[in-house]
Amino acid sequence: MNNVFNRNPRNWHPLKGQPLTEMDKIILSFQNKGKLCPSRDLIKTPEQIEGIRKAGVLNTAVLDMVAENIRIGMSTEEINRLVHEFTVSHGGIPAPLNYEGFPKSVCVSRNDVVCHGIPSEDEFLEEGDIVNVDVTTILDGFYADASRMFIMGQTTPEKERLVKVAKECLEVGMEVCKPYTFVGDMGNAIAKHAHKNGFTVVRDLCGHGVGNKFHEQPDVEHYGKKGTGMLLVPGMVFTIEPMINMGDWEVVIDEEDGWTVYTEDYSPSAQWEHTFLMTETGLEILTH
User: What would the pLDDT profile of 91-113 be if each residue is shown by its tens digit?
Assistant: First the structure.
């Protein structure tokens, strides 16, 4: 589930009475140059990482179950029931349910719906649809978040290519993210890949920190300039989830339900998402 921009910059503070670690020194050197750095509470402890990792295993199992059952002709509400029942039966909680009033356990977004599609008994999957299923799972108080695209039967070459390039955008972003790079480095690479292929990147929603809460810092924008955004350091956990449009990047929110995000020009949109841990060497995917 995507985050809207949440500007709340906080700074890095070394532990009182403790000598500076190498990480302290590196982060403070960037902070002294005016860069946006994480606060210490964004660095997960080993115990928290293990909890998030376990939530990621269940979250992946939910999406695997969806992949086995999704089919032409089923309602999006049926996907919701499957996700809810599977999650609860395995000891988890579907995080979207009742989150800020969201009425369902999963987001299902078809074709020109960018994200936050609300499952319905009256909405059915049709031949040629491209469908994003976005699952967030709470297990023992820890959160993991991921989404996948599904193509229903045969679709157009243009839609198929959109789904493919959206996945490549996620992979490009993953490759760029190394310790002590910036969110803007990743966003810049994603936007370049999308634009090179004739597509655009949604700017009004973004990825986010996750793990102890559904949405944490940093805001993970999927466009931007190198060297901007928050510094990424070992121990941070966050999503990368680029929303790639076939047409313009502008979006609108359904006025009636207050959740469903559509492309403004009715063009198709595609998105893939994983939850990641930043390690000393690069990203570890927690939602395989």
Answer: 999 999 999 999 999 999 999 99
